[in-house]
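PROTOCOL LOG
Step 1. Enter all chains and additional molecules of the complex.
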Amino acid sequence: MATIQQAVRTMLTTGTTLSSGSPSVPDSRVTHGYRLQESALPAVTYSVDSRGDASTSGGIQESTITVTSIANTSEDALAIAAKVRSALATGTYDTIPIDAVIVTNETLQPETIGLSDEQEPAQAVTTATIYWRP
Amino acid sequence: MPVTPRPCKNCTLTADAQAIIGIVEASITLTGDTIEVTEIATVDRVHIAGMRSGTVSGTVFYDQGDNGVIKLEALIKSGNAVSFVFTLHSGATYTVPIIMTSWSPSIAVNDVVRASFSGQFAGECVIA
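Step 2. Run joint prediction.
Step 3. Record the structure below.
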């Protein structure tokens, strides 16, 4: 049986919303929880932060998800975050119906460069509330 | 015998035999009036039981394609009294004829569409 984590990944990778155009995030760079530090950019990580009953009957679930768009520049991170907004769409993914998706917040952590040539990539963090049925 | 906490996820509500699903919260309130029968020269006020009544209310996810929502919308327009059955847990039901008195779909930023409803008892509430 599919999990909501699998379903969210399928939602993000369905079609070519993230992988087409520039900046492009191939499906293989959409990962749950984390990415390896030296892995290629841009990339997207996501997590399902909560799950709870949303109704007393009918089995409707409410979850908060966080999607982090990671790129070398803020401009690219924001461009990917805009694609993420498009990818966060209602539908049935891995047999799990996601009935409502509400983007509730988006923040940007700009790239930082240290005193040497070290760099931390930019991260655009998108938070959404989803309603779904197991 | 110890009290057994019952999870709300096993509760159900039907209106005119139509299951209302997508319930965010719901309640049923039974009220009883009292009649004062204090006599002159007594110190303590005395009351006896008077008329009984009650109300129901709740909030549901709004979806006009859902049969439960369709039923509630029809009831607020018709004004007909129909049987509401609250099942609080297995074998515990409150059954009462209800006239819908309000129906209020609402929207809010960063939320899904919900609708609240309320109704007035139109007769006896049977607790079984």
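Step 4. Note key features.
The mean pLDDT of chain B is 95.
Chain B has one domain: 8-127.
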